[in-house]
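Hi all, posting the design record for the shared folder.

TITLE: backbone redesign
STEP: 1 of 1
STRUCTURE INPUT:
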């Protein structure tokens, strides 16, 4: 299991702080996600769900949501807030399987932890039901691992905006967390793609996907086509209901009039 993980285990040591950080961050990804959700709300997966900030948002739109994460401490926190239609599982993304599949497969800022990115993308694609959607978001940068000072400068730059958004006390806490040795050590193990490389590598596995720039991250939206045979079966299954509801054609009406009752 461990060979699939890069930097993932590091979250265990600061799970409570990451949870607080993730809930104080501007909800840019969450807001965008809500505009992209498919109309059909069945089952959703949040792969690398952390403490479940997006999983709980998805639970408001889907009948059933499963959040998976390799970090047991983060899953413990997520479970404390879990609603009746959300389930959390400690699992490596590379080991997770589900025979029923999902109407939405979602992942946010997790895939840069996967040493075998293509393998992870193929696995996620396989979990999408025919007619379902994949929405994958990950950090992008102009170089794979930005140096420490870039993160520190970014944290300082965000202070005035954070004060206006969440107040001085929480902004102070955000600055402390984002410049803490534990968080900076974690960031030093991250490995990001450029936007172009993201579109190239994700697009090879998800052909005809749509991409969107989301500030420090990039997003993919992909719909899995329903195979022609399955479309035929679905039409056939629906046809009696359609016949009942349809108006009789002029020929059918004439026939009914002339045939003996
Ligand atoms: C930056 S956090 C994002 C968490 C969550 N998606 C969010 O937006 O708050 C990355 C997450 O990926 C998880 N992770 C890393 N490697 C993983 C793997 N192989 N399988 C499942 N989760 C993994 C980490 O434990 C962590 O919770």
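Okay, here is what came back for every position:
SEQUENCE:
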């Amino acid at each position: 299991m461990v060979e699939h993980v890069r930097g993932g285990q590091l979250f265990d040591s600061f799970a409570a702080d990451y949870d607080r950080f993730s809930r104080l961050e501007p909800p840019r990804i969450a807001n965008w996600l809500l505009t992209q959700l498919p109309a059909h709300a069945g089952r959703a997966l949040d792969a690398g769900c952390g403490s479940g900030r997006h999983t709980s948002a998805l639970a408001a739109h889907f009948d059933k949501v499963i959040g998976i994460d390799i970090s047991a401490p983060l899953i413990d926190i997520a479970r404390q807030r879990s609603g009746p239609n959300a389930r959390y599982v400690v699992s490596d993304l590379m080991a997770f399987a589900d025979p029923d599949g999902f109407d939405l497969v979602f992942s946010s800022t997790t895939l840069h932890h996967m040493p075998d990115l293509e393998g992870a993308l193929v696995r996620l694609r396989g979990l999408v039901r025919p007619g379902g959607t994949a929405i994958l978001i990950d950090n992008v940068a102009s170089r794979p691992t930005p140096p420490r000072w870039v993160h520190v400068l970014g944290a300082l730059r965000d202070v005035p905006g954070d004060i206006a958004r969440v107040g001085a006390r929480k902004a102070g806490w955000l600055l402390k967390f984002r410049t803490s040795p534990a968080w900076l050590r974690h960031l030093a193990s991250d490995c990001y793609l450029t936007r172009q490389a993201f579109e190239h590598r994700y697009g090879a596995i998800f052909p005809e996907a749509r991409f969107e720039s989301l500030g420090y991250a990039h997003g993919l939206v992909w719909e899995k086509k329903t195979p022609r045979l399955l479309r035929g079966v679905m039409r056939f299954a629906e046809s009696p209901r359609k016949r009942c509801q349809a108006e009789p054609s002029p020929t059918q009406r004439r026939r009914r009039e002339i045939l003996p009752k």
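COMMENT: The longest strand covers residues 128-139.
Let me know if anyone wants the other runs.
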